[in-house]
Amino acid sequence: MAGGAMAENMCNQKLLPVFHITGGEGWINDPNGLVEFHGEYHVFFQYYPHDCKWGPMHWGHVKSRDLTHWERLPIALYPDENEDGCFSGSAVVWEGKLWLLYTGFKQNEGGETVRQLQCLASSDDGIHFVKHGVVIGEKELPADYCPWDFRDPKVFRRGGMFYCIVAAKKRGAGGRILLFESEDLFRWKFVVDLFERDGKGFMIECPDIRDDMGLLLYSEQFYPADGNKFLNVHSSLYCFGELTLPRGYRAEGEGEIVDYGFDFYAPQTFPNTPVMIGWLNMWDRTNPFEKYGFAGQLTVPRRLIRKGNRLLQQPVYDGVPVRTEKDFSILSDHLLVGAVKVQAKGLSEFSVCLRKSDEYVTLFERRGDVWIFDRSKSGMPISGAEKDADSLAGIRRMPYEDIEQTEIEIVSDLFSLEIFVNGISLSSVICPPTDADRLDLRISAGSCIYTRYQMK
Ligand code: FRU
């Protein structure tokens, strides 16, 4: 492909996604500590500011009033002499302070992680944090779990108590999720293994739980592929069930895929708002964005809706409609930073070329009983650890549902496309040049409405 020419033209240019959260420079992974504090949304993230690769983890920090425009704040947590890194975790507001519970760890001289421990930090102003050290350590972890795979606490308060779920690994078995309780955030006690079965993958990461929806969200390393699902090297899953505190959680059925795209992992939700943000990337992928000085971005925030046993997602963005068309079969437009919604009745055909130029195109279309997303000609190539035919070909599929009303929403930023079909999502990064902005749509339906939104 024409990557060589493009690489030369665009080299050393500083370019960042416009409304997606990044570190500004350097590497980011999981969203952490999503929380509402003094009327603003705070998002932290795994951050290594000094390189476009994973390194000793800091907590980067941004805040927003509308979930679209983010203000960058100083780094909230730094690794120090007691901790080789500050891994993922969560936040809770109590007695006017913002508290962070995160995983700290120490490596031995050979660089091996010997234990992962849950640590506490707090802030009065939501900007400057003081560390309080380890609060859930080896003493609180039952002996039959591995101390080196024990991470990503998600804290919440119910009925005058604090609870926290932490990903763990039973010795000689699979990933588990453990529940701890505390009266004061400092002294914690193990309650129960919430996840009675072993995860099918190697280790669970970043669990989150919402009793308002009965939702359990978690990510699993090396989760096995199943048809068009779980093709990425690691996957995020959800299930519904009942959380009875402090007894435990009864899951109904197997974990379901959260997102069908190439790039989605480690999602977390805000405590008081059912809005989720994930890492819009995947481990072990090449990073064409290095030439712009960054690695990794977070997804657009997504409002969660439970419909029966399905988790539906609605992207949240502050946009204004700038173009509307009705009952067309072919339409051409431009979409670079913004969103598009197509509402159709009696849909039979749909095909859209996105981020198109004479050289590049990303395709999303219905083919029989599947939706196909094809980023093989999107721009700079991206490859990873996945070796199945679809991954190598730059393709992801999700099931097509033959229903009367179809709503397709496409959220586009300079380096990503997040596609929602009736609330089921497919998210991927792409790396085209910024002049590849044409959109060509073909549709066959009883009736349809097209709306394009511009970010405010
Ligand atoms: C998930 C994860 C977490 C860990 C963090 C380290 O992507 O592996 O389990 O806390 O990333 O950066």
Describe this structure in words.
The protein has 456 residues and is an all-beta fold. The chain has two domains: 3-315, Glycosyl hydrolase domain, family 43 (Tachylectin-2, Chain A), CATH 2.115.10; 319-455, Jelly Rolls (Sandwich), CATH 2.60.120. It has helices at 3-10, 389-393; strands at 26-37, 40-48, 58-64, 71-77, 85-94, 97-107, 113-123, 130-136, 145-158, 161-170, 175-182, 188-193, 204-210, 215-221, 234-244, 248-257, 265-269, 275-279, 294-295, 302-307, 310-315, 319-326, 330-334, 338-345, 349-356, 362-367, 370-374, 395-399, 405-413, 416-421, 424-429, 438-444, 447-455. The protein has a six-stranded antiparallel β-sheet, with no helix packed on it. It has a six-stranded antiparallel β-sheet with strand order 23-32-25-26-27-28. Strands 4-3-2-1-19 form a five-stranded mixed β-sheet, with no helix packed on it. Strand 1 and strand 2 form a beta hairpin. It is globular and about 65 Å long. The model is unreliable at 1-11 (pLDDT under 50). The structure holds beta-D-fructofuranose.
